[in-house]
Amino acid sequence: MKAPPSFDFIRINKLNEFYENVDRYSSPLIISGGTVAVLMLKNRVIRPDVVIDISGIEELNVLKKDKEKNEVFIGSNIKLHELKSILPDDSASELILKAATTVGDIAIRSMGSVGGNVCLGDPGNDLPVALAAVGANAVVGSREGIRTVPVSECYVKPFKTVLKKGEILLGVSYKMLYGYRTSYNKFFINFLDHYVGIVAAIAKVEGISIKDMRMAVSGEAIGTTVKIDLAEFSKIDEINAIKDKLNKFVNERSMSDDRFGTVKFKKKVLLTLMFQAIDEVLKA
Amino acid sequence: MRIRLNINGKDYESDVEPRTLLVDFIRDVAGLKGTHIGCETGSCGACMVLLDGKPVKSCLMLAAQAEGKKIVTVEGLSEGGKLNAVQKSLSQKKALQCGFCAAGFSIMGTWILENEQDTDYERVKSDLAGVVCRCSGYEPIINAIVEAAKNERKD
Ligand SMILES: Cc1cc2nc3c(=O)[nH]c(=O)nc-3n(C[C@H](O)[C@H](O)[C@H](O)COP(=O)(O)OP(=O)(O)OC[C@H]3O[C@@H](n4cnc5c(N)ncnc54)[C@H](O)[C@@H]3O)c2cc1C
Ligand code: FES
Ligand code: FES
User: Are strands B2-7 and B48-51 parallel, antiparallel or unpaired?
Assistant: First the structure.
């Protein structure tokens, strides 16, 4: 039976209690749902001196809709399974929901939080790709105040985010988008638990004009969440040029043959997913 | 640390280490052995319980995280020795063989009956994705839960 190493445990109910406590320890571990944190503890991949349970912080368990700013804020403690019933019905939320509903199974989604999904930095995580595609920001709190970082710039390398010790993800915010088409696809090898490629795309098309188009990609083939700039394209008949750009993007990424597959296999997976996404968002 | 958990309506209090997993508290402190330990990685569902009405995998939770919440294990689904609709259907349809997965399917099936509007075959099959059965081939289990839902809704 796998048992975690020893640690102190604190349960926090207020954000300022978090800031007061986190500095007292040298290697604190934040835990929200615990689906991955507990697994990592059991496998002794991490050995924190304290586990800080933030799931009781009500300030992080809110969804705010600011009509004036046309903005949504999803608190980091919100569970993935809850998103279905609380997200607004705009296109950005639709894409985020598509990603959230593909996470694990109902139990994992009932336990797993938005914050845990965004902060782990596993290239196989679903939300970061959709959030990066819609241009969402991570809202990060610390004793010093609040800073926002585009989700697409949150990831340094697999399992390494830009969050520093003492910082906590308060939530993610994004602008609501209307009249867009969305696409979310991933390729994974279930029995190996390998998320080879994940692609999220969103586009607004009027007639043959592309008013706005965004895409992000992640997965083990690419190692982290990356946003792809497609702003230069304005007509749907430029589809071949778009695909050429995606081809170039994939071919310029440094990849290696490893346990997630050969370079040829990874490139094929990414391009197939990207082309599928483009076809889905630009189709009449 | 002193932890008090409410399991099947009863409080269990004990001095345990903070690293104690919920599944171990349920089995070893409360002595409720119907919640099983299988994969220990969140994949098989043998350790499934309801936490404030939501299905959770108790091998992925610290006991301390569950304080203040209401836990229902497979033992808590029946009342006075009377099986609930899902358990009865699984039993009548002889859907299970070795029964190692019984807790997972009984808990998830109960959650489905209480929370899903649609309880057709495909919906039930997809909802049960987080529970693994090594014996049955799933078909009889899914059918038993679909049938239980039909009967409940008739009543
Ligand atoms: C069987 C199984 C299947 C899964 N399938 C998928 C899948 O298909 N797709 C997917 O994306 N994920 C999957 N996961 C991973 C995981 O369940 C989800 O990513 C989930 O959303 C994590 O949330 P949590 O609250 O449980 O995170 P926790 O385990 O509590 O935390 C995860 C990490 O985030 C940090 N963290 C949590 N909240 C904050 C915060 N507010 N601020 C700063 N740091 C924070 C923790 O310190 C930890 O490092 C799966 C996990 C399991 C066990
Ligand atoms: S033992 Fe918990 S999911 Fe397998
Ligand atoms: S009946 Fe044996 S594992 Fe399901």
Answer: unpaired
What pLDDT does B80 receive?
87
Q: List helix spans (H) across chain B.
A: 22-24, 85-92, 102-115, 121-127, 139-154
Residue B95, domain CATH: 1.10.150.120
CB–CB of B60 and A39 under 8 A?
yes
pTM: 0.96
With tokens 């845990």, the residue in question is A116
A31 lies within 8 A of chain B by CB: yes
φ/ψ (deg, to 5) at A126: -85, -45
Atom number in ligand 1 closest to CA A127: 11
Joined tokens for residue B62: 């610290």
Task: Measure in Å the smallest separation between the Cα of A20 and chain B Cα atoms.
Answer: 20
ipTM of the complex: 0.96
Query: What is the number of the ligand closest to the CA of B138?
Result: 3
Instruction: Please state which of the four CATH numbers 3.30.70, 1.10.10, 3.30.43, 3.30.10 is assigned to the domain occupying A8-53.
Output: 3.30.43
